[in-house]
Amino acid sequence: MTDSGAIGVIAVTERGRTAAGRLQAAWPDRVRTFTEDRAGEQLRSAFADCGAVVAFLAVGAAVRALAPVLGDKHTDPPVVCVDEALQHAVAVLGGHHGGNALAGEVAGVLGCRPVVTTASDAASAAPLDSYGADLGFTVADTAPLAPAGAALLSGRPVRLEYGGAPAWPLPPLPPNASAGTPAESAEALLRITDRAAAPEAAPAVPTVTYRPPSLVVGVGSARGASGEEVGALVDRTLAEAGLAAQSVRALATVDVKADEEGILRAAAERGWPVRIFSADELAGVDVPNPSDVVRAEVGTPSVAEAAALRAAGEDGAAAELVAAKHKSANATAAVARLRPRGRLALVGLGPGARDLAAPRALAELHRASVVVGLDQYLDQVRDLLRPGTRTMASGLGQEEERARTAVAEARAGAAVALIGSGDAGVYAMASPALDFAGRDIDVVGVPGITAAVAAAHRLGAPLGHDHAYISLSDLHTPWEAIERRVRAAAEGDFTVCFYNPRSRRRDWQLPEALRVLAGHRPAATPVGYVRNAARGDEHAAVTTLAAMLDGEAEEVDMYTVVLVGSSASRTVAGRFVTPRGYTWRG
Questions:
Q1: InterPro entries of this UniProt entry (predicted)?
Q2: Which among 135, 47, 56 has a CA at the least distance from the CA of 94?
């Protein structure tokens, strides 16, 4: 039986077995090792039984072993080969379906280099065969994928059409794919639609049709209605409205029909899940065709229309009825279309060094069609953005404008990344953005390494016990409030991390804060400061509270983080350490 979550790891040499052990240690719940000498048999077993394969074998050997059992690129598990010297992790199969990502993960554990040869990934373009897959898109016909993909990657004109479907928060496509491309000059067509194809001649150019999961079919029935009758009514309702069954995400009904065999059978035969709602939930849905007879029987004036609208509008999504109630002798059916929400990712890029940015943050940059941020942060990541990504930059002091812009773009249906340094939730863009964001957009938060954490590791272990973060910027917070917080941290004997400590126009706040702390701890209390933590021009120093008050504070600017120890902090071998406060026993 296939375990889709397992990674089969093939290792038949001593070095390979050692490396396999490292993968096992990194992913203890995912790895299944195959370490017997019969490499080909082991590889085929893993290929059959696991959701992905990592083989410490030459690519040629792996290909020859797997050739007899290869099936379809959309169903075969991803395969990654790692050479004996542990220098390369090569995505051999299933690149767009996890293989390329797995090569990157393996490389991250083993310290080797991922090798990706799929054309779209090599060109940093969205792969057409998995475009929108994370949103539930399916491809109506895979045959046009190769020629359409070739046109896209070659820079030839490609037309993008939304055939009645609402906008979805999709990744970007290269600039040569556009809704503005004239049909007569397009060499390929990408069509996103939940409408059934009209009975017409085949398109003159390769046409890839994506089916978004945008429709919900609501169904009601008399007791004992057959699956054949319910299914035939559903099919007719979709056909008469010109809607594609591949875009149906669910069938919905009222709870008193939850065990109705005809409804359950019709849904099962079409591969649709069933959503169940109470009569009270459906009674609150405004519908065009209410029925007093239905109200008297089940407690709601509508089942089919109300259930379709209620399911399509779950979690606050907008919904519209696109096929009003149809009837057969013993059943009713209606169809609603959901209007998907835009997507806002709040992304912290970390303290500056590329290798300290979280992989998930980099993935969100790849995923976004719109990236909003401070101009200098956008300059840091432009090489990571896919062709066609729209960027919206602004300068210092325009945080509210950036937040409003990002939320507005998400409300318009885009996949948006709002970026900043450090962590988006720590003195950064998450809070202003969430002040403006409502339930009409989806919000994703991506944790990032903060400047304080990066600075602390550069200095030693100053945050080893309780600590407080305080911003000394009084642009938005009155100094009286800041001073109260500094005094409370001093009286509580916290290690204190100061953000925004000093600028050309704000040169007195840091010395004043240090004087408050000096009233509660010794002059020799260690103080560390790091300018441009984790960047190429990083500068770090460990000094004392007395030295900072004697003028060393003038070394500090807005790009610096200052950490002041508690009364228990000390300097050990030049490193700033705050003990955890435990008694260690041998």
A1: 4pyrrol_Mease, 4pyrrol_Methylase_sf, 4pyrrole_Mease_sub1, 4pyrrole_Mease_sub2, CbiG_N, Cbl_synth_CobJ/CibH_dom, CobE/GbiG_C, CobE/GbiG_C_sf
A2: 47
